[in-house]
UniProtKB/TrEMBL annotation:
Gene3D superfamilies: 3.40.50.12370. It comes from the Bacteria. This is Universal stress protein. It holds the Pfam family Usp. Belongs to the universal stress protein A family. CDD domains: USP-like (cd00293). Residues 234-301 form the UspA domain. Transmembrane segments: none annotated. It comes from Massilia eurypsychrophila.
Length: 302
């Protein structure tokens, strides 16, 4: 008998308030966060980040672990349906996921997270995160490209998730300590739809930040007059943004990494893959550069 596609543990939920009790701060907040759970060395760092946000915004936190198993329907689309499938023993993977989720649950109770749940999913991790994160406000994963990354994690996991769902992805660097985020935020603005979506999705954090730096990278041309409009837009939301224009004409990705460090940011907000992913894979691009060399957590949206 094939295993069920996913299994969930009991859920501890706060009672949902009536519509009449909602106010602006509640609507402009994070309500549901999905965090990738496994037994890798980087799981603790991304869990700390997700927990910090869940506690700060009183959000519901979903710990999601995936066995990597694909249903027969997915497999048969890529091979000759006449060829019999080789049985795969997924019990070891299921056992590791179960143990990781048990640890997650213990940590949530110890840290005082009121609303959380665990989900064990019989799917590839990237596919599972994209599917289950669709009905959330944020997905938290770890950096998968560059030095110190876990070789057992698929290298395109962060970008695959963000390109295949409609919510932002928070990518935690593979090196460094990042227990908290959002006090000092760098925002990348290049007049693209992706950058605008990233900024819109990050407004809950931007409105609570002590300082926001609006980074405008000029790759050879003059800054557009509409760049000032973004600062005004943020100000109308109560965000005090300071404009920083990089006119060196260098690679935008490298400039963003450097500028986010120089301004002391603990978070970089940016749009992902404004050009086609194939073009960025062949020619390079800001998204790929940042994902490979990030120094601070990155909030990305596509």
């Amino acid at each position: 008998m094939e295993p069920a596609l996913h299994r969930r543990t009991s859920v501890l939920l706060r009672a949902s308030p009536s519509r009449s009790t909602y106010h602006k701060e509640k609507e402009m907040s994070l309500q549901t966060i999905v965090v990738h759970i496994d037994d890798s060395k980087h799981c603790e760092a991304r869990l700390k980040m997700a927990t910090h946000l869940a506690l700060k915004y009183e959000a519901h936190l979903i710990g999601l672990a995936a066995t990597g198993w694909l249903p027969a329907g997915f497999v048969r689309t890529a091979i000759d349906p006449v060829v019999p499938l080789t049985p795969i023993d997924i019990e070891p993977a299921r056992g590791r996921c179960t143990a990781a989720l048990a640890t997650f649950e213990q940590q949530m109770r110890a840290m005082g997270v009121v609303s959380f749940e665990t989900r064990l999913v019989e799917l590839d991790p990237a596919l599972a995160l994209a599917m289950h994160g669709m009905c959330s406000d944020l997905i938290v994963v770890s950096q998968a490209r560059g030095p110190n990354c876990d070789p057992s994690t698929r290298s395109d996991l962060p970008e695959w998730v963000m390109l295949n769902n409609a919510v932002p992805v928070l990518v935690v660097p593979a090196r460094g300590e990042f227990a908290s985020v959002g006090a000092r935020i760098a925002v990348a603005w290049n007049r693209s739809n992706e950058a605008r979506r990233a900024i819109g999705s990050a407004l809950p954090l931007l409105c609570n930040a002590d300082k926001v730096h609006l980074l405008i990278v000029d790759e050879g041309g003059a800054a557009a007059e509409t760049d000032a409009d973004m600062a005004v837009f943020l100000a109308r939301h109560g965000v005090n943004a300071e404009e920083d224009i990089d006119s060196t004409g260098t690679d935008a990705g490298a400039a963003l990494v450097r500028a986010s460090v120089e301004c002391g940011a603990d978070l970089l907000v940016m749009g992902a893959y404004g050009r086609s992913r194939l073009r960025e894979m062949v020619m390079g691009g800001a998204s790929r550069t940042v994902l490979e060399s990030m120094e601070v957590p990155v909030w990305m949206a596509h």
